[in-house]
Amino acid sequence: MPPPSLLLCWLALLFASVLTACERAPLHRQEAFVFGTRVEVLIAGLDETAARPAAAAVLREFDRLHRTYHAWKPSELSALNTAIAAGRRQPVTPEMAGLIAEAQRLTHLGERLFDPGIGRLIGLWGFQSDELPAALPDPLALAAWQAARPSILDLRIEGAYASSDKREVALDFGGYLKGFALDRAVAILQAQGVHHALINIGGNVMALGSKNGQRWRVGIQHPRQPGPLATIELTNGEAIGTSGDYQRFFELDGHRYCHLLDPRSAQPASHTQSLSVLISPRAAAGTLSDVASKPLFIAGSDWPRLARALQIEQVLRVDAQGLVQVSRALHGRLEYVGGQPRQLEVIP
Question: Which residues of the chain have pLDDT under 70?
């Protein structure tokens, strides 16, 4: 099986990237490495002189967001985490205050299974590092974190300041920022007159318009095999996001420990291989596509109930045994690679 960094590239642009050289109509592409992953912007229907600066503006914004909200390098976000740990108030920009408020709302809706306030738990497991750990965390440190159970909901925004009485709170927007960046990309492209584009941030994808009159077709990565499990055509304004245990993980004594941590147990979730959500056109669809896959992944077999609470109708899950569960609303849109999976359950 290819390394996780290569697997990420399959999630989107399966056909768009391959067919770029064959397109008769203009199809401009720019790539970069941001947010710790490969990002790609494709713009259709515009000549190079119009498409190039628009795509470049998107990539500059991605770089700004990455530098501003990096939790583990000097940044505005790491400065906030330092202040919280010291029991101090910290001034925050209106943008950061808005990010925190929206993340708090989504954390509440996701029953705290998605929670950007668990930065210290991520650090205990070592998933913030480029080099993944080869040992388990100190059980006493995990127990202390569980006893405190810090959450982004413990953070207060008062005017232009953020603070928390719980010093264990540490923000990490790793499960949020790629989706927010998708929404920012859409705003930038539309402001520059771009109406047909596909934005891919390590498998989080947003579609605008079409690819020269045809719908954008993307792939959903198979969690245990190279290439896609299925492909799907996206309509204007739709966004898709996937969480998988193949993206960042380490293995110890035959057990896989992935980066998707359950705040209730302080342990990696182990009952799901991958979970994808397709978000219908709406405000902040990109953000929701990034965020929503996390609590549904961690919820395990309870995902249909939580999906209804989050008002998400299109979900694809592969459980730990390889059973493919798909909502009826999504099942009819998927084209399964190699035919319909043998283990398949369609959820009403």
Answer: 1-25
313 to 153, 236, 292, 309, 348: CA distances (angstroms): 26, 17, 12, 10, 10
Determine the Cα–Cα distance for residues 194 and 182; give it in Å rounded to an integer: 14
Helices (H), 13-134: 14-19, 48-68, 76-86, 94-109, 119-125
In DSSP notation, 254-323 reads TEEEES-EETTTTEE--SEEEEEEEEPS-TTHHHHHHHHHHHHHHHGGGHHHHHHHTT--EEEEEETT--
From CA 183, how far away is CA 283, in angstroms rounded? 9
CA distance 290 to 74: 24
Paired strand residues for 31: 40
Reported as a single tens digit per residue, the pLDDT across 29-70 is 999 999 999 999 999 999 999 999 999 999 999 999 999 999
pTM, to two decimals? 0.91
Q: Coil, strand, or helix at residue 214?
A: strand
